[in-house]
Amino acid sequence: EGCGEISIEFAAEVAQKLNLKSIPSAFQIRYAGFKGMLVVSRRMPPGIKVKFRKSMQKMESRAELLEICEYSKFRYCYTNRQVLLLQSALGVPDQVILERQRKYVDSLAKIHKDTETAVEFLNAGGLGADREWEHNLLNLLTQGFDINEPFLQGTLQDMVRYGLIQVRRKARIRVDQGALLFGVCDPTGLLEPGQVIIQVNRPSSLLKSRLVNVLGKVMVTRNPCLHPGDVRVLEAIHPPTQLAHLQDVIVFPVRGNRSHASEMSLGDMDGDFYSVYWDPSLIPPKQYPPFVYQPKQGRQTEGQVTVPDLKSFLVEHLTNNDVGLISNAHLVMADRNGVNSPECLQLVELANDAINYAKSGYRPTMPSHLRIRAYPDFLEKPPGFASYESKSILGKSFR
């Protein structure tokens, strides 16, 4: 769903307009009421630039300007609290996770002391937000500027502080053998269920990269990931000739009873990012069936929807959106009772209801027995809040 095709010739035109040095394999677009992804196809008939799928049309529109929201490229992926809880529950040893954190913190803490270390860190994605000033900083250091120059030194020290805060407060650790990729469908139908294709242009030095063809078992997930079934282990295979040109995306099969994208917290392929790990030590040995969400029916408006109706619902949604409250409750319950506890499974259902509230009109209510009574120490609540020492991977990572 949400995945069309674009000819290689038209993709080259788009890349030129965007001043890109290479042609991306996929574009996230908006056009005339259509939204989703366009995947580069080498099988388009002559004269045909784009093929849209019916699932990509969200409304009628006469606007015919092709808007490029984003395009495929290599992005480093980072852990977060939800991912670490699920990995730990699915059998990844806590010690392995803590060792990855130690190595990342060590590399981060040294970037303001040594030019080579700073260049290596920045070239490997920096703090992960793809900021232009990080690229400028990298250029200055590689052009021979002294790392002790006050501006450079102050900027690097700020990066160290910010990176360490992110590790402490969000369990944010860079995954060296991993990537954050757009998910797209296999337009040829060649892939079998459980198979994916992953080819990434991983940075190897300044302004250079090398193509990595990932093979074997990979862990794939997407945010938010609250249910243990939101983490999937799939098999990355060598790309057939018809798909060999697709890079810096994860290609999912179109065969099977259910889309792999949908198995991960109801994802799709209209622009969702997927975190992909191919580090063998971080791939969970256990798997759980994916979550099956039962959509709720909200209130229905009789007759034509008016502008006042839209305004009223917008205010209601902004006032009563409990996604954050439910997600925080899930975090605490998962820390105390485990991600498979009845409380957590109920909160997963509530979280999906809250996420779909804007579409369905159904507003979930938070039961009193699921509300937070005491907070784990890694949330660093101020005095006056009941707190306890977390025994989970998050508590270990925090301390």
Topology (elements, then pairings):
Blueprint: E1 3-7, H1 8-17, E2 26-31, E3 34-41, E4 50-51, E5 67-71, E6 77-78, H2 81-89, H3 94-109, H4 115-123, H5 132-142, H6 150-170, E7 174-175, E8 178-185, E9 195-205, E10 208-214, E11 216-221, E12 232-236, E13 249-252, H7 260-263, E14 273-277, H8 307-320, H9 323-337, H10 342-355, H11 357-360, E15 375-376, E16 387-388, H12 393-398
Parallel strand pairs: 1-3, 8-13, 9-12, 15-16
Antiparallel strand pairs: 1-4, 2-3, 2-5, 6-7, 8-14, 9-10, 9-13, 11-12, 11-14
Keywords:
single chain, six-stranded mixed beta barrel
N to C succession of SSEs: EHEEEEEHHHHHEEEEEEEHEHHHHEEH
For the terminal residues, how far apart are their CA atoms? 43 Å
Measured on Cα atoms, how large is the radius of gyration? 23 Å
Largest sheet: 6 strands, mixed, barrel
Task: Please provide a written account of the structure.
With 399 residues, the chain is α+β, with helices and mostly antiparallel strands. Helices cover 33% and strands 20% of the residues. The strands form 4 sheets. A 6-stranded mixed β-barrel has the order 8-13-9-12-11-14. A hairpin with a 2-residue loop joins strand 2 and strand 3. Helix 3 runs antiparallel to helix 6 and helix 9 packs antiparallel against helix 10. The mean pLDDT is 91.
State the gist of this model.
The protein has about 400 residues and is an alpha+beta fold. The chain has helices at about 10-15, 80-90, 95-110, 115-125, 130-140, 150-170, 260-265, 305-320, 325-335, 340-355, 355-360, 395-399, and strands spanning about 5, 25-30, 35-40, 50, 65-70, 75-80, 175, 180-185, 195-205, 210-215, 215-220, 230-235, 250, 275, 375, 385-390. Helix 9 packs antiparallel against helix 10.
